[in-house]
Amino acid sequence: MMWRSFSADWLKIRGKGLWFLVFLGPVGLIAMQGLNFGIRLDYLTKQYQSDLWGGLLDNIASFVPIALYLGGTLICSLMANVEHQTSSWKQLLALPISRTAVFMSKLLLCLLLVAVSCLLLSIGTVGLGYLLGFGDQPVPYAKVMQIGFASYAAALPVISLQLWLSLSSRNQTLPVSCGIALSLGSTFSSFLSGWFPLTWPNLAWSAPRPWLFSAAGLLLGLLLLLPGALHFARKDVN
């Protein structure tokens, strides 16, 4: 049943601006760092001459958490608005598909869209490195994948929470405001304790044992799915 709902959701997002957001995040980050390195190429290549790829990745990684939080928020909100704006919840939930399956299919689609964005970021990072002339040094493919997907795993609690809020509220002011506040707050994550989930996407890149924070994000994200799915299953919709 969930796959039938997923297929329907996949068709519904066409022309809704979601794919534009999927491309906007990674393209914006790559373009920003392309401008940064393009303007200061001699200075930055001298500073990072022993590890040019590492320098590029460090500069990109500092903006990944805010992009994940903001992008995940907007994707969840736009996806929920497909049903909210057309007032089609009653018709959808009247079908012989459980509410849990509806919730999980929308979560799966949201996670897939964010994963595509992270993959584009990794591909764009390699492309930018070659354009900047870093090809003489070996490409650290493991680090390139880590910059997107390790932080993505660590950000799952916030993405799960945003989908829960977006599906539960017809007015998207609260979930979008919450997401913007969290994305802006992530810029100050270095001043927060590592126990605070907001810091995990950054620590999933910079900590001595980054996999711990990716694993913590996966675990907490899964735990948040339970109350989110239960609340959606019991909530009256318009």
- Gyration radius from CA atoms, angstroms: 19 Å
User: What is the distance, rounded to the nearest whole angstrom, between the alpha carbons of the first and last residues?
Assistant: 22 Å
| Major beta-sheet overview | none
Number of helices: 12
Strand content: under 5%
Structural class: mainly alpha
Proportion of residues in helical segments? over 70%
Are there runs of 5+ residues with pLDDT below 50, and where? none
Which series of helices and strands comes N to C? HHHHHHHHHHHH
Descriptive report:
The chain has 238 residues and is mostly helical. The chain has helices at 2-12, 18-39, 41-47, 52-61, 64-86, 89-93, 99-131, 141-154, 156-168, 173-185, 200-206, 210-234. Helix 5 (64-86) packs antiparallel against helix 7, helix 5 (64-86) runs parallel beside helix 9 (156-168) and helix 7 packs antiparallel against helix 12. The longest helix has 33 residues, at 99-131. The chain is elongated and about 65 Å long. The two termini are 22 Å apart.
